[in-house]
Design goal:
By secondary structure, the chain is α/β, with parallel strands linked by helices. The protein is built from 8 helices and 8 strands. It folds into 2 domains: 14-46; 69-262, Glycoside hydrolase/deacetylase (TIM Barrel, Alpha-Beta Barrel). Helix 2 (83-92) links the parallel strand 1 (69-77) and strand 2.
Amino acid sequence: MPGIRLQIPWVTPHTESDMLTPLATGISAGLGALGLAAGGCAYAAMWPASELFGRALIAPRIEAGRPGELALTFDDGPNPAWTPQLLDILAEHDVRATFFLVGRYAQAEPELVRHILAAGHLIGNHSWSHPNLAITATRRVEEELTRTRDMLQQIAGVPIRWFRPPFGGRRPVVFEISQDLGMTPVLWNAITTDWREPSPDRIAQQMISKIDRNQRRGWATNVVLHDGGHLALGANRGPSVAAAGQLLARYKPNHRFVTLDAWNASTQAQP
């Protein structure tokens, strides 16, 4: 009828602000949940102590009555500019280490790989070209690890039992592939930014702090330093090599240096 306005009770007028507020709240909550999920995935993919995406060898508890144990591990070689000098320093201290080798560099420097082995050190797989395996296609992950394993075994004449993911990046399939290839995944509990630090003293002091903290907490230490650089063969690693010498001088008298095969693959240092 003219002059009569019908108002349906459940269709009440809203301001634009009134309508956007619950929508914004819902979007914010959703984004927050996505952020937490993304953060959890990033933690699982990159943080060394995380076991969400699989268990890796890090370091065991220090046994009562035994000196603290250190495993020196070196990534991104072989490096013709600095690996031979590092091998000389290790020989002076009668210490064996573990070298995680980039496949394309091993292919370019097979005699240096044999030199590492002849000196009594272990070698491990660090992928062919050093991608972040947490975000690398599964097929390429398999190619990176298989090609490197086969190349190293051809050069070395021994099985390759150890694998370290570049940057520590992984997801479940990365560990599954490495284990299917007969390799134990390895991470660490002591690392610095030695690849970009020009001061050997600062590298050594930062690492000493981490080693001593692990020891106070009752854990052995899996040390990562770099004798190579993943961007180019022949990277300057003088500071890292010199820092390794400082660590050897400091800890050799009262600590036991081991290669990774001294530790059970089921042991892991906690954060």
